[in-house]
Specification:
heterodimer, A: 338 residues, 2 domains, 9 helices, globular, B: 542 residues, alpha+beta, five-stranded antiparallel β-sheet, 23 strands, elongated, disordered N terminus
Chain lengths: 338, 542
């Protein structure tokens, strides 16, 4: 099947534009945070009324004093006029950020689809394409999270790793659009690799949320630590909940991805499991996230320890993506870095 | 945690009877082992222990890489070897961890299953005296009598397991609970995991895997014993007898490449017979491709790779000809530049000594698409476009009769060192060219054959592993998406037709999100009556 050069060129342009737009969104989100900081402080002071509410009713997001102080109860009246003014500016930046992120997602999606059409196959046949798919999932997941929780001002911290990944993917790991080798010509490419990309992409969100959790937790023990961050972060219960819910969603997907991979390996390599480096690290990832789920329901392991385990889980996902693909030769060596 | 609170007195009392002390030790060990804390630590150890297998070469994956690693790293390599770091998944320490984890799992599952069976028969628990203290709470006074409220609530809570009770003070309550499937899913997941591990282990006892190179010229391979294979990896109880009988004939092999040399498609045109066909001699055709193994009689035949066998014709001075095509092995998987040794016996020589001084070996490199850098041959493409060989012709004693086995890809270097085997020519030959030795022997490179490398795999338990993993996934999905939650309703008559209705809710697991459902139910039952301050908050824990 010949490669359509025009479409592949368009795909590359969309990819570049999406990355740039995400970068711009990061700037806007950071601006929201900067402008919203003082607003957040006064809002927090004003909000020292009832207990702050952790979980947001989904219907309440997007209105009222969202975004500025994640700790305020959704739908509750904003505090002083000062809050409203500061948060007004911040709010505007935040909304522009979300709008740009959505635009970025559309371009990102276009890049992926065009790549697929250009090569007439599933557009995740090498590392560049895999990272493209993974990042798309991460951003889309984050947009879904934004609908449920008032954490818009955290978007910068989610988009930043995404931009870094996209940048690395587009420069160092870029590969031109080509058909894939015989071992990859299977409908399992669609099933296995897409679930792997989706699960890994979602795992980015709990990873970031758990880092936030640890910062908040450290700030609670000693208010002087990470004060600049703890002021703007939502309460750690919210972060914990975001981390848990996204992990719980991604974990069965990841499990399915590994099982699908085993089924494919049985057809392609002659055995369903052979401790290939990628298989091994996927197994380790699975065990770590399993440990996270257990830790979260074990007294004494909730909270900080669970958060650490979750971060470790994502670290292993990244390790699996980069180190195993690029450094260690295994059966999964499909990176195809030009 | 457990067992530590046996006070000093209790310790004194037990000290007298050693049997009890042993029993106590065993019990405490068991409790410790089956506690979640220890299970978590074991899970971590498992992850950590599996890690070296990802970064260090493993014997079961690539023996040659391991040997190379050990050779390159001196004492460090030897130490790692002694500590079984090159056989991580069969090592003592890895096995110890997962066996302990298995014990821990069983120890956790048994009481949990008992508890589960009990809870399936139990009625929802009594309504707490003070619903206000629950994480979810709403109260309202309604203008209807208690019967009406209870009836309405019962209808709303269809699908919940519920029980109605009347308290001594005349209040009526409903205790309702839902989400039992969560625990069902949880147990199903863990039992399936156990089954998967057992099936995996049993598979390692009875499975085998063998690789063989078959020329793509109608050559046959029969699964009749270990001797038929080039390499064979048996499971622990496999001795090579009683392999599933079947035969495979490779008629042709084709490979398509893109202009840039990237392979696009491999296929081997094969025929096979198995089962009854063996008696009737029927051959059935099959197109063997990567990702499309031949499945027959519970065994699978895979197309692993391919390569070339250059064909040489040796014309001896007396005019006799010998033609041979021995497989050469690719030493570059991208360009398929191959090396090997094609060995000839002089024809019609009966005297062993004379024969041994006139054996000929053609060794060197083969390139499917030749690229000469000066006189140095390399391959530009894996496709068979312009084949050429760069060969050394060796004459003398090949050492085939020495009693030692030798590789079909190499000559015995010892023979060269001992001076029994000498190089008599070195030349590059394109297809159809020939060279002549000093004694008038002519060697022609006059053809190229292809070979396919096949793998036969046998694993009687792999369907079980698949079945268990599917059940596991279903259990996992149920246990992670279903919430076990309780709701209590207390209706206290307030004069004639009014009743004070209090609702309390509790999610029994740390699953978030019950608040939304509770709010919905409460709103339906109580209307938009005033909300208490902490309505909508989530219980941090159950």
């Amino acid at each position: 099947m010949p490669v359509n050069e025009t479409l592949s060129q368009l795909s590359d342009w969309s990819y570049g534009s999406a990355t740039a737009i995400y970068m711009l969104a990061v700037v806007l989100f950071l601006a929201q945070q900067a402008f919203g900081k003082r607003g957040a402080e006064s809002a927090a002071r004003a909000a020292e009324r009832p207990r702050t509410v952790a979980s947001a009713g989904p219907s309440d997001t997007g209105v009222g004093g969202t975004g500025v102080a994640g700790g305020t109860a959704p739908g509750s009246a904003p505090g002083s006029t000062a809050t409203r003014r500061y948060s007004g500016t911040a709010e505007r930046f935040g909304r522009m950020g979300v709008a740009l992120t959505v635009l970025g997602v559309l371009l990102h999606l276009a890049a992926l689809v065009l790549r697929g059409v250009a090569t007439s196959r599933a557009p995740w046949g090498n590392m560049y394409e895999f990272i493209m798919a993974l990042c798309l999932v991460a951003v889309v997941t984050w947009l879904v999270v934004l609908r449920k929780y008032t954490v818009r001002h955290l978007s910068a911290y989610v988009l930043l790793p995404v931009v870094v990944l996209l940048f690395l993917g587009g420069t160092l790991l870029y590969s031109t659009a080509t058909p894939v080798q015989p071992a990859l010509q299977s409908y399992w490419l669609v099933i296995h690799v897409s679930t792997a990309a989706v699960a890994s992409g979602i795992f980015l969100i709990p990873g970031v949320a758990s880092i936030g959790y640890l910062l908040q937790s450290a700030g609670e023990r000693n208010p002087a630590r990470f004060a600049a961050m703890t002021r703007v972060l939502p309460p750690k219960e919210t972060l914990d909940r975001i981390a848990y819910r996204t992990t719980v969603f991604a974990f069965p997907l990841f499990t399915f991805g590994v099982i699908a991979g085993a089924i494919w390996a049985e057809a392609a390599w002659g055995r369903f499991w052979g401790w290939d480096p990628k298989e091994t690290v996927s197994f380790i990832t699975w065990v770590i996230y399993a440990a996270y789920l257990h830790a979260r329901s074990t007294a004494g392991w909730r909270g900080d320890r669970a958060a650490v385990i979750n971060i470790l889980g994502f670290a292993v996902v990244v390790f699996n993506l980069f180190f195993i693909n690029l450094v260690i030769a295994g059966l999964h060596s499909y990176a195809q870095v030009d | 945690m457990t067992g530590q609170h046996t006070g000093a007195d209790a310790g004194q009392r037990y000290r007298g009877t050693p049997a009890r002390r042993v029993l106590a030790l065993a019990r405490n060990t068991w409790r410790g082992l089956t506690s979640m804390r220890v299970a978590l630590i074991l899970l971590f150890l498992l992850a950590v222990a599996a890690f070296p297998g990802a970064v260090l070469p493993q014997r079961m994956v690539n023996d040659a890489l391991v040997a190379e690693y050990i050779a390159d790293h001196g004492w460090w390599g030897r130490l790692l070897d002694r500590l079984q770091f090159f056989d991580v998944y069969g090592s003592v320490w890895f096995s110890a961890i997962y066996l302990l984890l298995l014990v821990s799992l069983v120890g956790c599952l048994v009481p949990r299953s008992a508890e589960y069976l009990r809870s399936m028969r139990d009625r929802p628990v009594l309504t707490p005296r003070n619903l206000r203290r629950l994480p979810h709470y709403r109260q309202a006074t309604l203008d209807v009598d208690a019967d009406e409220v209870i009836a309405r609530a019962s209808t709303r809570l269809t699908g919940w397991r519920r029980v109605e009770r009347t308290e001594p003070d005349g209040s009526r309550t409903i205790s309702a609970e839902r989400g039992y499937l969560r625990e069902t899913g949880n147990l199903v997941f863990h039992f399936a995991l156990l089954g998967l591990i057992i099936a995996f282990a049993v598979g390692h006892m009875y499975s085998y895997e063998g690789q063989v190179i078959v020329h793509a010229d109608g050559s046959e391979f029969c699964n009749s014993g270990i001797y038929a294979y080039d390499t064979f990896n048996p499971g622990l109880t496999v001795d090579g007898t009683e392999l599933t009988p079947f035969c495979v004939k490779v008629n042709d092999f084709e490979a398509d490449y893109l202009p840039n040399g990237q392979p696009e498609n491999y296929r081997a045109d094969i025929e096979y017979q198995s089962g009854e066909d063996l008696d009737t001699g029927t051959w059935r055709p099959y197109e063997l491709q990567v990702n499309h193994p031949l499945r027959t009689e519970g065994d699978r035949v895979y197309l692993l790779g391919h390569g070339f066998a250059p064909e040489f014709t040796v014309t001896f001075p007396d005019g006799q000809q010998r033609r041979q095509a021995t497989q050469w092995r690719p030493n570059d998987q991208v360009t398929l530049l191959s090396d090997g040794a094609t060995k000839f016996d002089p024809p019609g020589v009966t005297d062993a000594t004379e024969r041994r001084s006139n054996q000929i070996a053609v060794t060197g490199l083969f390139a499917p698409t030749a690229h000469f850098d000066g006189a140095v041959l390399s391959s530009a493409n894996a496709d068979l476009l312009d084949p050429a060989v760069a060969v050394d012709v060796m004459r003398g004693d090949l050492g085939i009769d020495s009693g030692y086995g030798q590789s079909i890809f190499e000559i015995d270097e010892n023979m060269v060192e001992q001076g029994k085997l000498e190089r008599v020519a070195r030349e590059n030959l394109r297809l159809g060219e020939e060279l002549e030795l000093d004694d008038g022997t002519r060697i022609a490179f006059d053809g190229v054959q292809r070979w396919a490398s096949l793998q036969v795999s046998h694993d009687p338990t792999q369907q079980w592993v698949l079945a268990f993993s599917i059940v596991m996934l279903a259990g996992l999905a149920a246990s992670l998406t279903i919430k076990r939650r309780r709701i209590w309703i207390r209706v206290t008559p307030d004069g004639g037709t009014r009743s004070v209705v209090a609702l309390g809710g509790l999610a029994r697991t740390d699953q978030a999100g019950y608040g939304e459902e509770f709010t919905r139910i409460a709103t339906e039952l109580l209307g938009d009556a005033e909300r208490p301050a902490h309505d909508g908050t989530e219980g941090e824990r159950s």
